[in-house]
Amino acid sequence: MQTSNTHTKVPTTLSQLIFASRWLQLPLYLGLIAAQTIYVFHFWVELVHLIEAAFGNQKALAALVTSIGYKGSLDIGALNETIIMLVVLALIDVVMISNLLIMVIVGGYETFVSRMRLEDHPDQPEWLSHVNASVLKVKLGTAIIGISSIHLLKTFINAANYTEQVLMWQTIIHVVFLLSAMAIALTDRLMSAPADH
To answer: Cα separations (Å) of 38 from 21, 46, 97, 111, 187?
Structure first.
């Protein structure tokens, strides 16, 4: 009798240890929160530079031109539409990457570590109520396509500063992202389809 009890306890203890190992992911999510903090800081630095440059601050304008890699002319005296557009696209890019981080942090923690118990919270994201590994993959794929689109648009606006080969490869990589996301979505749809279909 005692031996059978010991045999049943060993797998239970091992299972509990393996299940508890999911908490090893917690430092990873905390690290992503730190990365998000850096992105927020970067966003505000760029926004302050844009506002200062709009009021004629040459130092802020030079910082903006350097950060976006714009080389329209050697002596840029004031903001022009192209620089504003590139800076705004860079800010949108930061927001989209920040959204991606939130999806990974919140969705990943909820799916792989522990329930957050946010059912009655007024600010619970709509997508969190039905999140799982499959939904998370599709949402991440969509977010990556959005980020890639912004990068591609920035490159095309500033195309004079890129070689034809860089433009071609960025377009090819974007198309590969699109095809990958479509394949993930199709696979997810086929796997979640009812058995009679």
So the answer is: 28, 12, 12, 25, 35
Question: Which of 20, 34, 5 has the alpha carbon at shortest distance from 112?
Answer: 20
Percent of all residues in the chain with a pLDDT value above 70, rounded to a whole number: 83
DSSP secondary structure code for residue 55 in this structure: T
- Domain residue ranges of the chain, discontinuous segments joined by +: 24-192
Per the structure block, which two tokens stand in for 62? 């030079």
| Dist CA 98 CA 156 (whole Å) | 23
Q: pLDDT, tens digit, for every residue of 119-160?
A: 777 777 676 666 667 777 777 888 888 888 888 888 888 887
Using an 8 Å Cβ cutoff, are 87 and 68 in contact?
yes
* pTM score over 0.85: no
Distances from the Cα of 126 to the Cα of 20, 77, 159, 186, angstroms: 28, 47, 39, 22
User: SS3 string of 113-173?
Assistant: HCCCCCCCCCCCCHHHHHCCHHHHHHHHHHHHHHHHHHHHHHHHHCHHHCCHHHHHHHHHH
Sole residue written with tokens 């890699």:
69
pLDDT in tens, 97-109: 898 888 888 888 8
**pLDDT one-digit tens code per residue, 4-32:** 454 555 567 888 888 888 899 999 999 99
